[in-house]
């Protein structure tokens, strides 16, 4: 039974303070730290709110935000499709049970091996859609004998991101320039592709405080979809018009405690208005919105050091565990989970990881309850772009992931990496052999391109 059906409120945001400290302490005791915890019920709630706001639309979850199998399964079960940014995500979506018609593979500068795999997958799943963002990606698909469902990614030339590195719409890397979109779509249709959609994603940062950029973008997509539809149906070899117009993801979440949650109804209304009448279904591709507040990262304090400038709190998670603060300067809430933390005086503290990099910092001079060695801290809004961006830099094994099922029971969903895992692919000293479960060559030029 859904939260809405059961009458249980489905709040627009779950704050870090809403998580049960004693439950999280138990999880840290049972599974160790650092540890990702993901509440699948909250993922479901986030999906339900989106579905309520966008009732007629298709919701594709952008798997790159969190490709954990249990997350994909949960969202598929709830009714979502999966948007895949790589062959790896495509494999994981299919393994999670996604039927072809609910899978989009978005080819961004795709390596040959990715295209090979996507074309193979489409041969078994005819309803799968491949999104191309460059004319020569269409050529490369054709060279592989693919002429199935094709969506054209366009570059509308405006970005709504909060940081340069996450702005993609204004970035020439993504999509066919808008002024070539119609001819590219018609050309693909004439070559036998089934042109089913147009797509753009302008980065992460749709906010209900400022919907102007979003409106402008969506209205361009509406215009474009109408033009493409007209051109496709007018062509000599007339094909059916578009099935969908996909306006991407980027639905913002409040990372700061005092930030208001997104007004989804307002965003949905602005989206529908700006799109106008189009003879095609609206598709959205949220990643972050569905998973961010469903996840936290648990980390234990290794060291507390008074420095003249600040108190340095060293924890066992670092930029290799959660990269966003180091990579984008992102704010994540931090809470001390010790039972008596609320009674402690607050002081300015800088929370850092164990990586030898000065950017390995979760917060600088933030006012937090005095920290002691051994304290358990939790970092909030870690469900999106958390584990997915983790690395083994500094030869640090990646953390474990635990999911909370609907009944609140925890299960280990991905074990902690070991040092053995980290060195597994290396040539072992003396034996001259590498573990060759996997082909060592990527995509030799003469084989495929
Ligand atoms: C990353 C991405 C998304 C999701 O972005 P969010 O900000 O997480 O909602 C959607 N579509 C595409 C093509 C993406 O690359």
TrEMBL record:
Q: Name the EC number(s).
A: 4.1.1.20
What processes does the entry annotate via GO biological process terms?
lysine biosynthetic process via diaminopimelate
- Entry keyword set: Amino-acid biosynthesis, Decarboxylase, Lyase, Lysine biosynthesis, Pyridoxal phosphate
> What Gene3D superfamilies does the database record attribute to this sequence?
Alanine racemase (3.20.20.10), Lyase, Ornithine Decarboxylase, Chain A, domain 1 (2.40.37.10)
Q: Does the record's keyword annotation contain Lyase?
A: yes
- Biased composition annotated in UniProt, kind: Basic and acidic residues: 438-449
Highest taxon listed in the record's lineage: Archaea
- Give the Orn/DAP/Arg decarboxylase 2 N-terminal domain ranges: 41-292
Catalytic activity field: meso-2,6-diaminopimelate + H(+) = L-lysine + CO2
Q: Which residues bind pyridoxal 5'-phosphate?
A: 250, 285-288, 385
This protein is called Diaminopimelate decarboxylase
Q: Which gene encodes it?
A: lysA
């Amino acid at each position: 039974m859904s939260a809405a059906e059961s009458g249980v409120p489905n709040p627009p945001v779950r704050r870090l303070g809403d998580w049960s400290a004693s439950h999280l302490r138990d999880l840290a005791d049972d599974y160790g730290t650092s540890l990702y915890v993901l509440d699948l019920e909250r993922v479901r709630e986030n999906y339900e709110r989106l579905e309520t706001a966008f009732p007629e639309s298709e919701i594709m979850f952008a798997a790159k935000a969190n490709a954990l199998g249990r997350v994909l399964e949960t969202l598929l079960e709830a009714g979502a499709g999966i948007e895949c940014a790589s062959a790896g995500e495509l494999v994981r979506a299919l393994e999670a049970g996604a039927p072809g018609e609910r899978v989009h593979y978005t080819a961004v500068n795709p390596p040959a091996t990715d295209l090979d795999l996507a074309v193979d997958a489409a041969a078994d799943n005819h309803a799968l859609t491949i999104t191309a963002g460059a004319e020569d990606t269409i050529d490369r698909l054709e060279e592989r004998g693919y002429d199935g469902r094709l969506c054209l990614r366009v570059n509308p030339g405006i970005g709504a991101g909060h940081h340069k590195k996450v702005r993609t719409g204004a970035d020439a890397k993504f999509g066919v320039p808008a002024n070539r979109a119609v001819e590219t779509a018609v050309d693909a249709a004439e070559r036998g592709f089934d042109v089913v959609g147009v797509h753009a994603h302008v980065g992460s940062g749709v906010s209900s405080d400022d919907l102007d950029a979003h409106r402008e973008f969506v209205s361009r997509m509406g215009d474009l979809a109408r033009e493409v539809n007209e051109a496709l149906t007018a062509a000599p070899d007339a094909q059916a018009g578009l099935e969908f117009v996909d306006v991407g993801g980027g639905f913002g979440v409040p990372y700061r405690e005092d930030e208001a949650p997104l007004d989804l109804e307002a965003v949905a209304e602005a989206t529908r208005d700006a799109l106008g009448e189009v003879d095609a279904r609206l598709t959205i591709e949220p990643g972050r919105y569905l998973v961010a507040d469903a996840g936290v990262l648990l980390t234990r304090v290794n060291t507390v050091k008074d420095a003249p400038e600040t108190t340095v709190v060293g924890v066992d998670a670092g930029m290799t565990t959660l990269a966003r603060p180091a990579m984008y300067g992102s704010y994540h809430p931090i809470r001390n989970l010790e039972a008596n933390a609320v009674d402690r005086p607050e002081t300015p503290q800088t929370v850092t990881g164990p990586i030898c990099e000065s950017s390995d910092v979760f917060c600088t001079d933030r006012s937090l309850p005095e920290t002691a060695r051994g304290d358990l801290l939790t970092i909030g809004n870690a469900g999106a772009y958390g584990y997915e961006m983790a690395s083994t830099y500094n030869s640090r094994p990646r953390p474990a992931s635990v999911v909370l099922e609907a009944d609140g029971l925890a299960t280990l969903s991905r074990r902690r990496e070991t040092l053995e895992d980290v060195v597994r692919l290396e040539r072992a000293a003396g034996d001259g052999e590498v573990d060759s479960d996997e082909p060592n060559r990527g995509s030799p030029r003469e084989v495929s391109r």
